[in-house]
Amino acid sequence: xxxxxxxxxxxxxxxxxxxxxxxxxxxxxxxxxxxxxxxxxxxxxxxxxxxxxxxxxxxxxxxxxxxxxxxxxxxxxxxxxxxxxxxxxxxxxxxxxxxxxxxxxxxxxxxxxxxxxxxxxxxxxxxxxxxxxxxxxxxxxxxxxxxxxxxxxxxxxxxxxxxxxxxxxxxxxxxxxxxxxxxxxxxxxxxxxxxxxxxxxxxxxxxxxxxxxxxxxxxxxxxxxxxxxxxxxxxxxxxxxxxxxxxxxxxxxxxxxxxxxxxxxxxxxxxxxxxxxxxxxxxxxxxxxxxxxxxxxxxxxxxxxxxxxxxxxxxxxxxxxxxxxxx
Length: 327
Ligand code: NDP
Ligand code: GDP
Prior knowledge:
Layout: E1 5-9, H1 14-25, E2 29-34, E3 53-56, H2 62-72, E4 76-79, H3 86-91, H4 93-114, E5 119-125, H5 148-167, E6 171-176, E7 179-180, H6 189-201, E8 208-210, E9 216-217, E10 220-221, H7 222-233, E11 240-243, E12 249-250, H8 251-261, E13 270-272, H9 290-296, H10 304-326
Parallel strand pairs: 1-2, 1-4, 2-3, 4-5, 5-6, 6-11, 7-10, 8-13
Antiparallel strand pairs: 9-12
This protein binds NADPH dihydro-nicotinamide-adenine-dinucleotide phosphate and guanosine-5'-diphosphate.
């Protein structure tokens, strides 16, 4: 069998690192796109850097994408790059639109103009459901985004559907609910909590400042979710799929489990801070991934408790290591 080639955008992000690991296990030739920065941060991919080829490109520059597709000749493109933080999207709405929305069109154009046979994966998001129109949310649930990020993702989703329908491209959109891991960015609430739990337990912090504790999310493990991305591109027909656990938990519940894992009570440390409140909130996300189970044979493996435990333990080790390195 000939070796398949994949190009991942957003290689340096949480999902990019897990997806690269999965594709390497499947014996792919993996190219990962990174953008030019003054300081290189390959923290999430250091361990596999020798096995993948890092190439430069930017979602803001279509010609860089076209050139990359010409030189790397991928069979599959996984478009994971985005300005992905909801809170920042309120302050940088235009940049978020340029990257997270128009970036998708640039990549779809580059694929179409270079080799329309390339299979394309678009990283869509449950944030598109926003002020939810039904519970749980499926592929048929109407969108009602509540942030510039959510609006940008709706645009990217529909462009993916449109290019599939207009040009017969194998372009799939994965509507992924929140997924976390020890590699999640520190600004997201789950990792912010687990990192603070570790720092508080080891005497390096005394409080955790959070916004609204009531929002509920359907939180899964990123390592499980990248498998769904890959499965979508192995199907004969491109389509849209909700990827979720089907369970929802509040930020408060996450705190309770995370602090509880190291025998602390969150009520003693969590301080409410207006700075982390959002102009508009997504209150309740819970996904129904029946279609993914039936068509892709995918289901999540990691439970909510396992996820929280894994993240707290990883941060306990990380903080201890950082302290040893300072000593
Ligand atoms: P991260 O924020 O961890 O990673 C985002 C990646 O995009 C980084 O590699 C970043 O590079 C890159 N990037 C940002 N702007 C550009 C640009 N202009 N050109 C090229 N690369 C760029 O996100 P995740 O890994 O968590 O998520 C992956 C994708 O899935 C994103 O599109 C996200 O919106 C989407 N998604 C994520 C969910 C989640 O819960 N994690 C849920 C649903 C969807 P750099 O390192 O240089 O900043
Ligand atoms: P999102 O679902 O992509 O916005 O993921 P986040 O992890 O950023 O936020 C999940 C939920 O946690 C949102 O409803 C936030 O309003 C809520 N939240 C409460 N406090 C915080 C905080 O301090 N930081 C972040 N990022 N979110 C918070």
